[in-house]
């Protein structure tokens, strides 16, 4: 209401949007296809406008041989960041937080976690992941 605004012209309004919308998650389970170059995709829609800056990506995957896996993060504008690639050997499961500098990349839109299982036999599931804008 612009007509009422002048009555409050000495009042300074401050809103901290970073507190309202800096954490996004996807809790849906996505089975990872065994030895499949497309892998499993899980998306998170972010309505946090502006530069992504530094982010924390938390990933929780159940798997019986995590050395099979390539984990890629795709930004809304298509930049790819490899979180890890065939590391961990025969270790079960991934529960990690990756700290990434995404300065210069727009935050708003669909972020995709793509998990590719490169070796036949052992299988797993994306259980949960999240993005926190710091
Ligand atoms: Ca889940
Ligand atoms: Ca496998």
TrEMBL record:
Sequence ranges assigned to domain P/Homo B in this UniProt record: 18-134
Pfam families per record: P_proprotein (PF01483)
Record's keyword terms, sorted: Hydrolase, Protease
Gene3D superfamilies: Galactose-binding domain-like
SUPFAM superfamilies named among the record's database cross-references: Galactose-binding domain-like (SSF49785)
Keyword Protease set for record: yes
Name of this chain's protein: Proprotein convertase P-domain-containing protein
Source taxonomy: Bacteria, Pseudomonadati, Pseudomonadota, Gammaproteobacteria, Alteromonadales
């Amino acid at each position: 209401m612009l007509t009422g605004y002048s009555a409050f012209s000495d009042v300074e309004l401050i809103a901290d949007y970073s507190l309202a919308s800096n954490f996004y998650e996807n809790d849906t389970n996505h089975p990872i296809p065994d030895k499949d170059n497309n892998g499993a995709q899980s998306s998170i829609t972010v309505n946090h406008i502006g530069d992504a800056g530094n982010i924390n990506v938390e990933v929780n995957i159940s798997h019986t041989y995590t050395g099979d896996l390539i984990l890629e993060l795709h930004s809304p504008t298509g930049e790819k960041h490899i979180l890890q690639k065939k590391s961990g050997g025969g270790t079960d499961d991934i529960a990690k937080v990756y700290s990434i500098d995404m300065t210069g990349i727009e935050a708003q839109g669909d972020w995709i976690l793509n998990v590719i299982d490169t070796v036949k036999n052992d299988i797993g599931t994306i259980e949960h992941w999240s993005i926190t804008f710091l």
